[in-house]
């Protein structure tokens, strides 16, 4: 065998020896590279998800019912670009979520939590309910204190009342009268006891004394006074005289608030008698009807000047008696006066 042949054989042997050693190692490396790590061996706790773009991820087919999110820190995750419209939360079980740590948190507005002590202070137990105020109070009021001129002759009229008492019981005084041509044409005074029987309504009983016309006469009085629906102030009283004469008087007032201080007061009053009394110029039936409108300006709530129109007409036998005396049966006049109370 020649030297050239030996050399070639030796080179081939060396090459084969090297190939046999390196081939298993490379095969093992290739197999290891193709093998994916199992989920159990992957550690996500050190992975930074803050730079991941979740906006293009489709979560609609993901089953969250078996996922444990209790140890996940979502504080650094940016959800602003995530589309939740296709996520199905219907299979998520919230029954095992612990909200107990939120019970002591203040309301979102920052207001303190309402305690039982706060509720007790706001809604105390009411043991005694006072239906009426027992304080004794009083008032004197002149609704009309006015004057006018009739063919150069002055005239005056008044209507006022006073009372003292509490919400349940009152002592009332009422007076009304008129003067013309320097003499008193009519004047009366009533002393009444008032007893509240309903909200805004009193029953009144007492006596009425007429000074004029035609001499003095006394009546027993019984009636009601109060505030009717639509804020009409009403007084209705029946009378029985010492000579068997009977009478009735009904008065209604209504106030229209034009401004806070400018007020229009409307008044209607009707008087009727049971029998003729020529000495006093009174006939049976409807005797007189009065109406008027007075516009007042309240300088203060206690004092208000006014101007107005007053109208009066006699009816029936009373009108006939006035004709016999040469007196008009109807009269209208412009009046000026003041309304005050204290």
TrEMBL record:
Keywords: Signal. GO terms for biological process: intracellular copper ion homeostasis. InterPro entries: Cu-R_B_prcur (IPR007939). Residues 28-107 are annotated as: Disordered. One of its GO terms (molecular function) is copper ion binding. Residues 43-105 have a biased composition (Basic and acidic residues). One of its GO terms (cellular component) is cell outer membrane. Residues 1-27 form the signal peptide. Pfam families: CopB. This is Copper resistance protein B. It comes from Cognatilysobacter bugurensis. The gene is pcoB.
């Amino acid at each position: 065998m020649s030297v050239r042949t030996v050399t070639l054989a030796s080179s081939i042997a060396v090459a084969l020896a090297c190939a046999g050693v390196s081939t298993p190692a490379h095969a093992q490396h290739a197999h290891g590279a193709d093998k994916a790590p199992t989920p159990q061996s992957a550690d996500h706790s050190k992975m930074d998800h803050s730079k991941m773009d979740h906006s293009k991820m489709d979560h609609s087919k993901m089953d969250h019912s078996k996922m444990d999110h209790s140890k996940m820190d979502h504080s650094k995750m940016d959800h602003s670009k995530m589309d939740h419209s296709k996520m199905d939360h219907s299979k998520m079980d919230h029954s095992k979520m612990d909200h107990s740590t939120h019970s002591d948190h203040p309301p979102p507005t920052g207001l303190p939590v309402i305690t039982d002590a706060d509720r007790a202070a706001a809604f105390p137990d009411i043991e005694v309910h006072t239906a009426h105020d027992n304080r004794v109070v009083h008032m004197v009021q002149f609704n009309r204190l006015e004057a006018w001129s009739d063919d150069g002759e002055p005239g005056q009229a008044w209507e006022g009342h006073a009372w003292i008492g509490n919400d349940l019981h009152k002592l009332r005084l009422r007076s009304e009268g008129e003067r013309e041509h320097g003499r008193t044409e009519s004047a009366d005074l009533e002393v009444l006891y008032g007893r509240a029987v309903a909200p805004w309504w009193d029953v009144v009983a007492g006596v009425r004394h007429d000074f004029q016309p035609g001499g003095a006469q006394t009546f027993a009085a019984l009636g009601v006074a109060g505030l009717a629906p639509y804020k009409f102030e009403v007084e209705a009283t029946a009378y029985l005289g010492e000579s068997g004469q009977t009478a009735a008087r009904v008065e209604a007032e209504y106030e229209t608030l034009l401004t806070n201080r400018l007020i229009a007061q409307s008044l209607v009053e009707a008087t009727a008698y049971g029998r003729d009394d020529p000495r006093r110029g009174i006939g049976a039936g409807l005797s007189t009807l009065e109406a008027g409108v007075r516009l007042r300006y309240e300088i203060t709530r206690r004092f208000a000047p006014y101007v107005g129109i007053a109208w009066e007409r006699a009816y029936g036998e009373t009108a006939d008696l006035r004709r016999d005396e040469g007196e008009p049966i109807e009269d209208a006049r412009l009046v000026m006066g003041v309304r005050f109370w204290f």
